[in-house]
Amino acid sequence: MDILKIVSTLVLPIVLIAAVVYELKRTLKYTNFDERQQIVRGRAFKYAYYTAMIFAAVIIVLEAGGTTIMSAVVFAGLQLYLSFIVFVSYCIFKDAYFTVSEKSVKGYALMLAGLGTINLVGGIIQAGKGHVMENGMLTKDCLGLVIGVSFLFIAAEFVVKKFLVSREEEE
C-alpha cells in the first residue's frame, strides 16, 4: 500500500479529529473577546474578504484573456487559504486571535506545525510524481503544498509573535 494512502486514510483523520476537538474546547472555554479585539477581528475579516475578491478578479481577468492557470478546485482552495492567512496573520499581530484570558499558544502552534508538516510531505510526494501541473495548469494535487505551507507559515507567525512579546516584556 502506498504511504500516502496510509497517511490519508489512517493518520490524517485522527489528526483532523484531534484538531477539531482542540479548537472546539478552546472556543467553548474562551469566547470573550474584548471590544478592541472584536474591532480588530472585524478589520481582519474585511481584509480577508478583499483578498478573496482581488484574487478572484485576477483569475477572471486571466481567464478572460484566454489564460487558464488552474482548475476551479484549485482556485477555490487558493482563494480560501490566502484569505485565511490574511485573517489569521492580521489577528495574530494585532493581538486579536486569542482572547484576553488565553495565555498559552504553544499547543495551537504545535498542532498547526504538525498539520502543516503532514500536508507538506503529502504535497511533496505528489509533486515528486509530477501530478501538481498538467497541461500548464495547477491541479488539485498542489493543494497539499498550499495547505502545508500556509499552516507552517501561521505556526511560524505564532513563534515570531511570542518572541516579540517576550522581548517587549524584557525591556
Defining key terms:
2 strands, globular, single chain, two-stranded antiparallel ribbon, 171 residues, mainly alpha
Please, could you describe this protein's structure?
The chain is mostly helical. It has one domain. The chain is about 75% helix and about 0% strand. It contains five helices and two strands; from the N terminus they run H-H-H-H-E-E-H. It has helices spanning about 5-30, 35-65, 70-95, 105-130, 145-170; strands spanning about 135, 135-140. It has a two-stranded antiparallel ribbon. A hairpin with a 2-residue loop joins strand 1 (about 135) and strand 2. Helix 2 (about 35-65) packs antiparallel against helix 3. It is globular. The protein starts with a helix and ends with a helix.
- The strand line-up of the biggest sheet is 1-2
Mass-distribution shape? globular
Q: Kindly state the percentage of residues in helix.
A: over 70%
Cα(first) to Cα(last) distance is 55 Å
What count of structural domains? 1
- Give me the Rg, rounded: 18 Å
* Total of helices: 5
Mean pLDDT score: 83
Layout: helices, strands, pairs:
Elements: H1 3-29, H2 35-64, H3 72-93, H4 106-128, E1 133-134, E2 137-138, H5 143-170
Antiparallel strand pairs: 1-2
Helix pairs in contact: 1-4, 2-3, 3-5, 4-5
